[in-house]
Amino acid sequence: MKLYRAALMHTPDNPFSAPGALQVQEDGGLLVEDGQILASGPYAQVRAAHPRAEAVDLRGGVLLPGFIDTHVHYPQVRVLGGLGMQLLEWLDRNTLPEEARLSDPGYARAVAREFLSALASNGTTTALVFGSHYASAMDEFFSEAAQTGLRVVAGQVVSDRMLRPELHTTPERAYAEGKALIERWHGVGRTLYAVTPRFSLSASEGILDACAALMQEFPDVRFTSHINENPREVQTVRELFPGARDYLDTYERAGLVTRRSVLAHNVHPTDRELGVMAAHRCTAAHCPCSNSALGSGLFPLRRHLQAGVHVSLGTDVGGGTGFSMLKEGLQAYFMQQLLGAAGEALDPAKLLYLATRAGAEALGLEDLTGDFSVGKAFDAVYLRPPEGSTLDTVLRHADSPGRVLADLFTLGTQQDVAQVWVGGDAVYRRAAAGQEVSV
Ligand SMILES: O=c1[nH]c(=O)c2nc[nH]c2[nH]1
Ligand SMILES: [Zn+2]
To answer: pTM of this prediction?
Structure first.
């Protein structure tokens, strides 16, 4: 039994509907046994009740629930930084050539290691991962993920048109490979499966029907895809599906819009689409760095909230700009500011919720992770800036917990992630000062 002593912050309630949702213990204690939180509260109180628990002293930094990234592409870690293009050109020139390289399982394994290590070192403990087009690359990914201990919800990406021939499959093969992957990996350790057509532009009705067949056969797997990201993409989808009412309808008609669905982007939704997403309790994964880098547009968060659509946050590596959910939160804040009166003011509690608990809800994992309530898994990130860094200086002068949290989102980076746990297991620990290798 371990007793973690730290400044703790979390959002077990939704700050978009419950003001005062940010819960703070400036000198808090979390009692953890077998990876689960058994007690929480002021340190002195938890200590008095459990005098024999082994102490882990994390004073000097801030302990947050592990971040939950609800949209991130495993095959794209090496092609981050492809600036200067919009979505369809970026796919053709920057991204799909790299995705084709994952046909080689050795290459795929190396990329999977780089990807998973980047998640952990940025404090992400759970991720909804857009996979590779190759089933063999997914086997590599899932077996590497099992070794890291991270929670991953991931699936093979399927498409049958308009990408590159070597990335295309058929509905029959998509179904057969998906079924085999689900049977091999779904529910194994901390791994879950997500059925993943790339987007309706590259997925015929036959592919979407094959996805629907998998969703019906395996009622616990998740679903993810892209939607309404870029005006040229939206127009092309309209032409490819002349009978569909809108982009969402291409998924809806196949029965793919449900509580288990997470649709990335949704920068250009219609009111009808928002109403249907809310009615089916499907999530929009907002990816503000990607929307900025690819010039996709300003996400209408306020319209989503008013329609009752659940929203979570994703880095969208490699359309995005890295794995940091702190940076993603800050960019979400910027974009709402830029929307002026149409924007939703994102205070620090909302940013923390979007980066943690909202993701757990999107994935149906809110009873397991996303906050520090008793009974949850101990999934946590310990942020402690290096001494003398700007964040260190600013935190020393922060005059409230809300300001501490705002400072972490404003200035925090991967360098500030000191330790990360999933289910009580340490999955990352920063090298001690002075041990960095200099070049
Ligand atoms: O941001 C995105 N990244 C992708 O890889 C992709 N594929 C289809 N649509 C996409 N959007
Ligand atoms: Zn994406």
So the answer is: 0.98
